[in-house]
Amino acid sequence: MDVIALLMSRLLGSAIVLMSCIIKLPQIMAILRSKSAEGLSLASFETELIAYTLTFAYGLHFGLPFTGYGEAIIMSAQDVLLLALIYKHAKIPMSHVAMYTSFYCGGLAVLLSGKLGDDIMRVLSGASFVTIVFARLPQIYANFSAKNTGQLSIFSYIITVCGGSVRIFTSVTDNAGITMVVGYCVSTTLNLIIALQILFYGGSKKAPVKGNGKAQAAKKKATPARASKKKTPAKKKVEDSEDDESSSEEEPQVRRRLRKKRA
Q1: Which DSSP state fits 113?
Q2: Element (H, E) at 112
Q3: Which entry of 14, 100, 153, 250 is 20 to 30 Å from 85 by CA?
Q4: Tens of pLDDT, residues 124-181
Q5: Could you give the angle at the alpha carbon of 25 between the alpha carbons of 24 and 27, nearest 5°?
Q6: Which value, in Å, is the radius of gyration of the alpha carbons in the chain?
Q7: Mean pLDDT of the chain
Q8: Ramachandran quadrant class, 93 (left: phi over 0; alpha: psi -120 to 50; beta: rest)
């Protein structure tokens, strides 16, 4: 039974690694298609990148099977691309981009240097799942407050939830430790909440801009007024012509009366 469980763990782990290659692709395509980062929490994706980095650094340090942490490397690469798109379309200040990039690159160099002890790496592994919590909470709150999920991709989160569920099983069978098991349980639950929010609130819907209706109504009111102003001279001309006709009819009658008096 142990052999079967180990074999299942390896197969499922390999499937997760392969699936992770496309897990962020729907989200990337959604941003490229709409040219908008609406609904995406910058803090959420920046924190998520740190969490994935701590996860694969832990696997590399302790020499775990690549199927046990390989998706974290691929997800980190995709998060880097997503952050670049968010920085571009959300017009994030360059000072913020430079500060975060230098912080991440410096931390990555320290993690991969091999100079950190086992105890420190275990603490950082636990911190990675705490980081995942802080990565998901801003996104959950943003969705709840806006009652809209913007450009978030339901396909990406469904795949993430399925992968997280499988990862819980592989972590148990690979004896990855209680920290990773609990961490995957928490992260999968939070990803499920976001997936349900996407289904409940729906995607990006362009709300009508405030003031447009009033402006259009004002224009409609203004146009008849202008038309009436233009029409008033025509009315005056008609009245003047009627007066002229009436006066022209009265002139012969007056002349006839004068002739009769003279006679």
Answers
A1: T
A2: none
A3: 14
A4: 877 877 787 777 888 888 888 888 887 787 888 888 888 888 778 777 776 666 777 7
A5: 70
A6: 36
A7: 76
A8: beta
Considering the entire predicted model, what is its pTM?
Answer: 0.63
Output the six-digit token pair for 52. Answer: 């994935």
CB 217 within 8 A of CB 186: no
Whether 132 and 183 have beta carbons less than 8 Å apart is answered as yes
Spatial contact of 162 and 135, defined as CB atoms under 8 Å apart: no
- Mean pLDDT for the stretch of residues 81-102: 93
Burial of 134 (0-12, 13-18, 19+ CB in 10 A): middle
HEC assignment per residue over 86-129: HHHHCCCCHHHHHHHHHHHHHHHHHHCCCCCCHHHHHHHHHHHH
Instruction: Report the distance separating Cα 240 and Cα 40, nearest Å.
Output: 69
Name the DSSP letter for residue 77. H
The first and second tokens of residue 182, run together, are 């609990």
Which tokens belong to 250? 């009265």
Return all residues near 229 (Cβ < 8 A) that are at least 6 apart: none
